[in-house]
Specification:
Length: 449
């Protein structure tokens, strides 16, 4: 796990824990509060309906008292009261009913077919002896009772709350009721609203959490990118200084080999050749030994020159980049026999030593890779200057790079090529497919000394 990932996790874990705890507490408290408020609302709604029922019955009681006072007889009063109850209504499903204490139905505006029937033993779907219970409540002074009854407007059996009182001297129970299925409907609507509010709260918490996570991640990324860029810049500078130090050391060792050991070997060679002129030709053994020694010295001299040239060609320092590249290509052609299509144009601008060295090393490494690994028969190399800078391209028709980084770690490697070019403000690209060869492209926008 990278340091950046650890830093982000260390920043996010406390935030997630706090958010989870806050969300859980908020939802729990909200659930308790919502349940309590729903209960209070349901109780208030039910209480308002019960109050309305009592008011309706009270109004009917006042009307009954007036009728009884204005009627000449009880029979006339009874007939008028039955007629009034049968016609009275206060809503689509709001009507009055009246029963004798024996359970005989006297009034039922919604279901006239029940009039004259004895319903003392009638039970609703829950087994509730509702007529008996209503009569008992009326005899006890009046009150409320909940039961199931067929709703006239829908024909469905739903919950209903009734309020009843008595006319004691007539031995009547009368009252009215309200269907409370609308309470359940309203409660469902309110619960849906509460659920919607909970979801909105959760959504708001999630949005706030996502924003917070985004801020943390963004800040962490910005911080890490800045640190990464700083570290990368420091690493590039260190790598560049290392390369410079290597080039300086190569130059020093090359000079030492060329000016020291090589000159010493050449001096020994001349001494052997001089000695050969003073030895009689008849002394075949001595003469052959000197000849073999001279040939060995020639090979040693050539090897020292080759090593010195590979370390740091003196022509690069003495005659410049183009001469050094041409010599490098000539040596490569003589050594490998690979056909070359070379297009090196004249460069009018002054090239800095770092750019010249980088171009030379890229060509040197590319040629070495082509000779050792590519199996190519043809090489195309171009080096030109245009208005934007210096362009170098090297292409071969070899086997290509079969595996990623197949020769990236050999010599200075492709990665080191890229780092050296990009440190100098240039662009480096490699394109290759197995069996289709490899093409290296490097450009330097700022190459003037």
């Amino acid at each position: 796990m990278s340091l950046r990932t650890k830093l982000i996790l260390f920043a996010l874990i406390p935030l997630l824990v706090v958010t989870a705890i806050f969300s859980a507490v908020t939802l729990h408290q909200g659930s308790i509060l919502a349940e309590r408020e729903l209960q209070i609302f349901e109780q208030n709604l039910r209480r308002s309906k019960e109050t309305a029922l009592k008011d309706y019955v009270s109004i009917m009681r006042t009307a009954i008292d007036f009728i009884r006072q204005s009627s000449s007889s009880d029979d006339e009063a009874r007939d008028k009261v039955v007629s009034l109850m049968q016609e009275a209504s206060f809503s689509e499903d709001g009507y009055f009913y009246a029963y004798t204490y024996d359970g005989l139905n006297l009034v039922h505006a919604a279901q006239p077919a029940l009039i004259g029937q004895n319903l003392i033993d009638f039970q609703d779907s829950n087994g509730n002896n509702l007529i008996r219970n209503l009569i008992r409540i009326a005899e006890d002074g009046g009150g409320y009772h909940q039961y199931l009854w067929q709703q006239p407007s829908t024909g469905n059996e739903v919950d209903k709350v009734g309020y009843v009182e008595q006319i004691s001297d007539w031995q009547w129970m009368f009252g009215t009721g309200l269907y409370i299925d609308d309470i359940a409907s309203e409660m469902r609507l309110i619960e849906a609203g509460v659920d919607a509010n909970v979801k909105q709260t959760l959504l708001a918490i999630l949005v706030a959490l996502m924003i917070s996570i985004g801020v943390v991640v963004f800040a962490s990324v910005i911080f890490n990118v800045r640190e990464h860029r700083l570290a990368d810049q420091n690493l590039k500078e260190l790598s560049h200084k290392t390369v410079q130090h290597q080039e300086e050391e190569r130059r020093r060792v090359s000079r030492e080999l060329h000016d020291g050991i090589n000159q010493l070997l050449v001096s020994v060679k001349y001494q052997l050749e001089t000695a050969m002129t003073h030895i009689p030709t008849a002394d075949t053994i001595a003469h052959e030994s000197l000849v073999k020694g001279t040939e060995g010295l020639n090979r040693a001299i050539q090897e020292v020159r080759r090593i010195s040239h590979d370390l740091r060609p003196s022509v690069l320092d003495d005659l410049g980049l183009l001469s050094a590249v041409k010599q490098l290509l000539n040596d490569f052609h003589e050594r490998s026999g690979i056909k070359m299509d070379v297009d090196i144009q004249a460069i009018t601008s002054d090239i800095s030593e770092e750019v010249a060295t980088t171009i030379y090393r890229i060509i040197q490494e590319a040629l070495s890779n082509i000779e050792k690994h590519a199996g190519a028969t043809r090489l195309v190399l171009g080096l030109e200057e245009d208005a934007e800078g210096l362009l170098l391209s090297i292409a071969d028709n070899g086997v290509g790079i079969a595996e990623k980084g197949a020769y990236a770690n050999r010599g200075i490697g492709l990665r080191n090529m890229r780092e050296r070019v990009e440190f100098l403000g240039g662009e480096f690209r490699v394109s290759s497919r197995p069996g289709s060869g490899t093409r290296i492209f490097a450009s330097f926008n700022q190459f003037q000394a």
